[in-house]
Amino acid sequence: MRTFTVSDLIRQINLDLFKYNDISVEGEVSNFTRSSAGHCYFSIKDAKASIRVVLFATNARFLKFRIENGLQLIVRGRLTIYEQKGEFQLNATAAEPAGLGALQLAFEQLKKQLAAEGLFDAARKKPIPMLPQRIAIVTSPTGAAIRDVLNVMGRRFESMHLQIYPVRVQGNTAGREIATAVRHLSRWELHDVVLIVRGGGSLEDLWAFNEEQVARAVAECTIPTISGVGHETDFTICDFVADLRAPTPSAAAEIVVRAKNEICMHVDADLRRIRHVVESRVRNYRHELRHLTSSDRLYALPRRIAFARERLERRRLTLFRLLDVQAKILRRRLAATEEPLARFPARIVKRREALMSVAGHLQAVSPLSVLSRGYAIAFSRTKRGRKPIFDSNQVAIGDRIEVQLKKGRLECSVDGKTMGLETVWPGNE
Question: 301 has which bridge partners?
Fold first, then answer.
């Protein structure tokens, strides 16, 4: 009997399992986990057994739906033994829901998620303007949808301002292009409404309008949006998130642009209704006016007005007389006040002459006038200030004195003095 090492045995079993290199296994998902690297680990089971499954990130990224516990799944891959733990497992390369298609399951899962977030709520829907002036259309420039939209708009309202934002509407990059277009239009805010349209097709053909990035871009758009994707029986996630869903691209064009003749008919109907209301009210007012003119109280109105006018005139005359009397009183008071003021200038002249006479006398006896003739005044210094010197006995030899001249003063000291018997005249020395 041959003895194997553990690794040799597992390697041999893996070689024996090579015939199970491409198999499909159906079972219910349990114990699902996803690593930070994107690898998926779970088990699939039936009523009697279960098997471990690993789906690496390189293959998991192609899934259109989310793997969840309890989901009935068909897993395709190969059987292997995980050498480090010696566990039997299925290395999956692909997976799809049993019974329900992968795209349909992904559609239902995303629809449920966005509905729970409130993206389908009617309260967040923006109203569509009745007659938008600028319309943006997100679609393929070569598809049948744009031709239908242009045909309908040209027939219903010519010279409408349209801008086509060209995108792919099918393929791996279509969803990203559509979401980018909607975000750009929302940021620019140059249009009144945005149309997102595409012709009919299978679920796979319309899948770009079921991607989460498109749904969130439409939900966040600040401009009202209309989704017209596929035929009447086709529903996409974009339809549920948009502010308004149109069954077809042509219907979207009919909704966003009302026919000019319909608008004119609506305006004419409103004018007729307004005219009828106004004429009816005028007739009612005329009837009420006739009733008032025939009443006794209305006949008495002119007499009441004349009486009020007469009373107002009497009061006006009374007020005029009172003002005239007050004016006369004020004039008399003003005249009585002006009479003393008229005599006041003569009194001022007399007082000025008397003042000039007194000033002349003061000037004649002023010591300053004596100084102007060459004389001086001597002052001694005391604690109380300066004191005129009238006698040589008031000072002693060596005292400091001040001599006031006509211009300026002199500070001197006493070098000598006499008894007052001598008289020294200028020029006799």
Answer: none
pLDDT (tens digit per residue) in 364-400: 777 777 777 778 888 888 777 788 888 888 888 888 8
CA dihedral 9, 12, 14, 19 (to 10 degrees): -150
Phi, psi (5° rounding) for residue 349? -65, -45
Q: What is the residue whose two structure tokens read 């008399």?
A: 332
- Whether the pTM exceeds 0.70: the reply is no
Average pLDDT for 287-303: 73
Cα gap 53→157, rounded to integer Å: 60
Q: Helix 102-117 vs helix 212-220: angle between axes, to the nearest 10 degrees?
A: 30
Q: Which long-range contacts (CB under 8 A, 24 or more apart) does 332-340 make?
A: none
pLDDT of residue 342: 66
Query: Dihedral (C-alpha) 259, 264, 269, 274: value to the nearest 10 degrees?
Result: 130
Give the whole-angstrom CA distance, residue 13 versus residue 181: 54
Q: Options 3.20.20.140, 3.40.50.10550, 3.40.1010.10, 3.40.50.1820; which CATH number does 131-258 get?
A: 3.40.50.10550
